[in-house]
């Protein structure tokens, strides 16, 4: 009941004309619940209805007589539309399989099809014969609009089976449209996982600041940044830097870099293979794929440029950067990677991070060390480091054990 009057099935148009002056809400009820209406429909009074009945309502779009005449002539010659016209005027078959093949695409919309003045209509849209479809599509595409705009324009005026597919093919094969079409939007970057813990997955990149080359390495999990000055940018130098980092923090599982020559060389690949590291490289021209290293490089580069301009120590600046809590985790990179808060230039109360079990074991070990049993006045031999005198026998009054590190007992 919400459709336009011209698009409603003919059997409902008369009903819609009678109820249009009312505001109604329709609710679905099963036939078993419509007792009175169902009874009256079965016991109707067979009397002639002398009221005028509207059989169909059509509305022609704003088309010139010349264009409309072209459609009439082409419709009269089109074999499939002749069959369709006969079905509209004489009635449709009960099953779709009984309908001729050329008219089956119209079977599902048979209630809104009509024939008027030599033209077949579906509601307000004109069914276009096959011989005119290419010409109609060229007219629709005269403004070189896109697929969606052409579909909206076509649906309000014309119709034929698979019209959307034909328009799609026309737009895709239009050379000016393809050359001047907007670029496809960039695919949304998928965030990488942070690894299984501190220094399990790292990323690296080279950058230049104040005429010097640096290697920035960042841990995915903690965002801890390592900055190493590179006197040369050879593969051998890179391997040397990585070995020092791995000796301090351990060997990572994954290393992400760009496709620079140092990272793609055979020597570097052999190094990673021997150390059991998985190497992930970003594609050429797609630096955002190594975004973690790019972000760390940006932080390190700005830090170095600012401290050089200010004349302060870059190591202190890097220390404070590593110990600044992050907004997403609430913890500093240094605390996440080391498990405690390192001491910095800022005053704070020192917290005891010692584990009780470790303290207990170290105390037990310290108490198990054998102590020297010496008494005051005891005769002992000790080494004299004055040249030409190797051993001296001496009796000293000393506190027991005060010279234990220097004594050699006989």
Describe the structure using short key phrases.
410 residues, alpha/beta, 5-stranded mixed sheet, 4-stranded mixed sheet, 15 helices, 11 strands, elongated, disordered C terminus
Describe what you observe in this structure.
By secondary structure, this protein is of the alpha/beta class. Helix content is 37%, strand content 13%. It is built from 15 helices and 11 strands. The chain has helices at 10-19, 35-42, 65-77, 79-90, 133-140, 147-155, 163-172, 175-180, 235-249, 261-264, 266-275, 291-310, 314-322, 333-338, 356-367, and strands spanning 113-116, 119-122, 125-127, 158-159, 201-209, 212-219, 225-230, 254-257, 278-281, 380-383, 391-394. It has a 5-stranded mixed β-sheet with strand order 7-6-5-8-9, sandwiched between helices. It has a 4-stranded mixed β-sheet with strand order 1-2-3-4. A hairpin with a 7-residue loop joins strand 10 and strand 11.
At a glance:
The chain has 410 residues and is α/β, with parallel strands linked by helices. It is built from 15 helices and eleven strands.
Write the layout of secondary structure elements.
Blueprint: H1 10-19, H2 35-42, H3 65-77, H4 79-90, E1 113-116, E2 119-122, E3 125-127, H5 133-140, H6 147-155, E4 158-159, H7 163-172, H8 175-180, E5 201-209, E6 212-219, E7 225-230, H9 235-249, E8 254-257, H10 261-264, H11 266-275, E9 278-281, H12 291-310, H13 314-322, H14 333-338, H15 356-367, E10 380-383, E11 391-394
Parallel strand pairs: 3-4, 5-8, 8-9
Antiparallel strand pairs: 1-2, 2-3, 5-6, 6-7, 10-11
């Amino acid at each position: 009941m919400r459709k336009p009057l011209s698009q409603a099935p003919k059997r409902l148009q008369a009903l819609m004309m009678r109820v249009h002056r009312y505001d109604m809400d329709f609710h679905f009820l099963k036939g078993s619940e419509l007792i009175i209406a169902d009874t009256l429909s079965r016991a109707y009074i067979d009397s002639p209805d002398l009221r005028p009945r509207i059989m169909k309502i059509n509305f022609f779009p704003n088309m010139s007589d010349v264009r409309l005449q072209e459609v009439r002539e082409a419709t009269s010659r089109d074999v499939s539309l002749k069959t369709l016209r006969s079905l509209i005027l004489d009635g449709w078959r009960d099953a779709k399989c009984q309908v001729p093949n050329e008219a089956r695409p119209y079977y599902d919309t048979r209630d809104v099809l009509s024939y008027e003045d030599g033209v077949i209509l579906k509601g307000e849209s004109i069914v276009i014969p096959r011989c005119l479809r290419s010409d109609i599509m060229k007219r629709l595409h005269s403004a070189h609009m896109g697929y969606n705009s052409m579909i909206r324009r076509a649906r309000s005026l014309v119709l034929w089976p698979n019209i959307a597919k034909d328009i799609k093919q026309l737009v895709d094969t239009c050379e000016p449209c393809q050359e001047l079409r907007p670029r496809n939007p960039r695919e949304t970057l998928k965030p990488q996982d942070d690894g299984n813990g501190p220094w399990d997955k790292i990323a690296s990149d080279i950058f230049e600041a104040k005429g010097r080359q640096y290697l920035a390495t960042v841990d995915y999990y903690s965002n801890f940044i390592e900055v190493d000055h590179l006197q040369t940018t050879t593969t051998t130098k890179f391997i040397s830097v990585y070995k020092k980092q791995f000796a301090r923090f351990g060997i990572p599982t994954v290393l992400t870099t760009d496709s620079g020559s140092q990272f793609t060389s055979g020597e570097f690949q052999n190094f990673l293979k021997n150390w059991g590291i998985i190497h992930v490289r970003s594609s050429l021209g797609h630096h955002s794929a190594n975004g973690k290293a790019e972000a760390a490089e940006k932080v390190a580069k700005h830090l170095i440029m600012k401290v050089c301009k200010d004349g302060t120590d870059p190591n202190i600046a890097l220390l404070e950067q590593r110990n600044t809590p992050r907004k997403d985790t609430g913890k500093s990179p240094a605390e996440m990677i080391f498990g405690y808060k390192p001491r910095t230039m800022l005053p704070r109360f020192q917290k005891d991070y010692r584990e009780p079990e470790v303290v207990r074991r170290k105390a037990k070990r310290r108490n198990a060390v054998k102590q020297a049993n010496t008494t005051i006045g005891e005769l002992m031999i000790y080494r004299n480091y004055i040249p030409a005198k190797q051993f001296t026998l001496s009796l000293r009054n000393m506190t027991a054990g005060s010279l234990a590190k220097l004594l050699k007992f006989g």
